[in-house]
C-alpha cells in the first residue's frame, strides 16, 4: 500500500511539474511576441494506470492507458470541445495543413483541422492503438472496445461494451451473444493491419 501511495504521489508531482513547464513555455511565447504566431499542442504518447484493474503505469490497452490528452491551440481559433476519435499520427497532416504545407497522399494520418471550425466534425469513427510489448491491438469506437492479443488472437481477446460498462470491468468476448461482434472486429483488425503495411516503405522495397 505504501508503495502504491508513493506511485500516486509521484504521478501527481509529475503532473504539477509538467503544468509548470507548460506555463513557462506560454509565458516565453507571450514575452517574445510569438504567442499569436505559434500553434501549441499538448498531448502524450500514452495514458497511465493508477491501480485500475490492478494495473499500474502504461501496461494495457484499456482506456486509462490508451487514451491521451489532446489540446490544440491555434492563433485566431476559438476554444471548443471536440468529441471525435483521433489518433496521434493525425497530428503531422494537421500541422502541415495549418502551416499551408503541401498535402501528402502517402500519409496514413488524417487532417483533423476541420474540427477547429466545426467541433462536431467527425474525423474517425474508430481509433486504433497498439501495445507492442504485449502484442496487443485495440479498436475503439463509441460502442465497443475490442482488444486482441497476437495477430492470430491466440493470446486472447477482450470485448467491452462502453455504453453499459464504461470502466471496462466485464469481458464479453467469450459470451455466445457477442460472437458476431467479435468476428466482425477480428475481420476489421485484419484489414486494418493489412492497410497499415501497404505503405511507401513497403513499395520502395
What does this protein structure show overall?
This protein is globular. The chain has six helices and eight strands; from the N terminus they run H-E-E-E-H-E-H-H-E-E-E-E-H-H. With about 200 residues, it is an alpha+beta fold. It has helices at about 1-30, 65, 90-100, 115, 180-195, 200-205, and strands at about 40-45, 50, 55, 70-75, 125-130, 135-140, 145-150, 155-160. Strand 6 and strand 7 (about 145-150) form a beta hairpin.
Instruction: Give the biggest sheet.
Output: 4 strands, antiparallel
Percent of residues in beta strands: 15-25%
Mean pLDDT: 93
- Cα-atom radius of gyration: 20 Å
Q: Helix and strand succession?
A: HEEEHEHHEEEEHH
The class by helix and strand makeup works out as alpha+beta
Summarize the structure.
The protein is α+β, with helices and mostly antiparallel strands. It is 34% helix and 16% strand.
Amino acid at each position: 500500500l505504501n508503495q502504491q501511495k508513493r506511485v500516486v504521489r509521484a504521478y501527481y508531482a509529475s503532473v504539477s511539474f509538467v503544468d509548470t513547464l507548460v506555463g513557462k513555455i506560454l509565458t516565453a511565447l507571450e514575452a517574445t511576441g510569438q504567442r499569436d504566431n505559434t500553434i501549441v499542442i499538448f498531448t502524450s504518447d500514452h495514458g497511465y494506470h493508477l491501480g485500475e484493474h490492478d494495473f499500474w503505469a502504461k501496461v494495457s490497452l484499456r482506456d486509462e492507458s490508451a487514451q491521451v490528452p489532446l489540446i490544440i491551440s491555434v492563433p485566431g481559433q476559438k476554444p471548443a470541445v471536440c468529441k471525435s476519435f483521433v489518433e496521434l499520427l493525425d497530428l503531422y497532416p494537421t500541422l502541415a495543413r495549418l502551416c499551408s504545407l503541401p498535402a501528402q497522399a502517402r500519409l496514413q494520418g488524417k487532417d483533423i483541422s476541420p474540427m477547429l471550425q466545426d467541433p462536431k466534425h467527425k474525423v474517425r469513427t474508430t481509433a486504433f492503438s497498439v501495445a507492442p510489448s504485449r502484442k496487443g491491438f485495440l479498436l475503439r469506437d463509441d460502442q465497443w472496445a475490442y482488444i486482441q492479443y497476437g495477430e492470430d488472437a491466440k493470446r486472447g481477446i477482450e470485448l467491452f461494451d462502453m455504453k453499459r460498462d464504461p470502466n471496462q470491468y466485464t469481458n464479453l468476448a467469450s459470451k455466445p451473444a457477442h460472437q458476431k461482434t467479435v468476428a466482425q472486429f477480428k475481420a476489421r483488425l485484419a484489414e486494418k493491419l493489412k492497410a497499415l503495411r501497404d505503405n511507401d516503405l513497403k513499395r520502395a522495397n
